[in-house]
Design brief:
The chain is an alpha+beta fold and 185 residues long. It contains one helix and three strands. Residues 49-68 are annotated as: Disordered.
Length: 185
């Protein structure tokens, strides 16, 4: 029994036709496990059409192929991809929310630190103002005490001079009395 098969392959991009033929001879009486009596002969013939460089390669119109794809596989694949994408999107969203929460907490801490520094500065400023007010007040008190002492001394001096004047006027002599009073400041 002689088997001969020809395989016709066409390269659609370059429009090359390749024919592969094989010759196998088998005897029906021989067991199938024995090697064939003659070796397999492969003959390759390739035909390349002559292409005009100005026109380009001719295009062949091919009949549409039968669609033998499993139509449910893409749906399952899409559903799985959707679930994976959904989980990753949820994870990304949670990470973003955590980052935003962390930034919000950082800003809150920074605001608290700035508020604390502002309160410390206000406290120091008020303390300095109070110290200045206290020194001014103590200085005014010291000046008032000094003035009151001077006034008291002048009063005593005037009284002593008046007593002297009374004593001298009894004798009959007139004394010119000059009293110097310090002006108030």
């Amino acid at each position: 029994m002689k088997l001969c098969s020809i395989i016709d392959l066409t390269d659609h991009e370059t429009s090359h036709e390749i024919q592969i033929s094989t010759n196998n001879e088998h005897r029906s009486n021989e067991p199938e496990t024995l090697p064939p009596s003659k070796p397999t002969i492969l003959a390759l013939e390739a035909e390349t059409p002559k292409i005009n460089p100005e026109k380009g390669a001719p295009r062949k119109i091919l009949a549409p192929r039968k669609n033998r794809t499993n139509r449910t596989a893409p749906l399952w694949r899409n559903a799985l991809e959707y679930l994976d994408n959904k989980e990753s999107r949820e994870e990304i969203l949670k990470n973003r929310q955590l980052n935003l929460e962390g930034k919000r907490i950082e800003l809150e801490n920074r605001r608290l630190v700035l508020d604390e520094q502002r309160h410390e500065m206000d406290y120091i400023e008020r303390k300095e103002k109070l110290e200045m007010e206290k020194t001014r007040f103590t200085q005014e008190m010291f000046e008032r005490d000094q003035k009151s002492k001077i006034i008291e001394q002048q009063h005593q001096l005037i009284q002593s001079l008046m007593e002297r004047l009374k004593k001298t006027s009894k004798r009959g002599s007139h004394v010119l009395l000059k009293i110097y009073i310090l002006p108030r400041v």
